[in-house]
Amino acid sequence: MSWFKRKTYPDFYNAYAETFKQQSKVFETTRFVVFDTETTGLQPETDKVLSIGCVVVTNTTIDVADSFECYLNQIQFNADTVQIHGLLKGGKLTKIEERDAIIQFLDYIKNAVLVAHHAAFDIAMINQALKRLDLPKLKNKVVDTGQLYKKTKYVKDQKHYSLDQLCNQFNITMHDRHTASGDAYLTAILFLKCTALLKKKKNRALRLRDF
Known about the structure:
Strand content: 15-25%
Distance between the termini: 44 Å
CATH architecture: 2-Layer Sandwich
Mean pLDDT: 88
CATH topology: Nucleotidyltransferase, domain 5
Number of helices: 7
Strand order of the largest sheet: 3-2-1-4-5
Number of strands: 5
């Protein structure tokens, strides 16, 4: 009867999963974690995460004191992407193993709503790292700022909006572009700009189901 046994997971994953038993259902009290990953490439099944950057948004405030950043040891190297993110295989940055990065990331995000620009890619990269650890996918609700921007418009739009394009449209100064923490902060500002427009469009307080 061994096939009936429930799969067991390590304590750090169980602690993460436990946080979903209690979640805020109100926009103003929801903890949004805006995050970004820098990677060796654009193929989640074969490429690896090089760094993760996060910052928290609660209500209409970016809490820079509540942030997270880590750099991962590079088990593979792509010289082409170094020109974008500048992360060398060596260098002076303190780097940690992928398992440790995932442990710290899950402990940081808990049951927060995750926000990212073109979120499907970043989520897929984290999920592949979880898969390598024989763990389930992320349980968090996810908001994509590219899709959120489209919700602020009155016409259907299939256009693909880059972070650069939307930062330029909203006059967001692009400091630290193509660093995980820098892009997370830019995305957090974009998230607040879009939620303000969405709130104005709906002419009422936002609800989580609006995302």
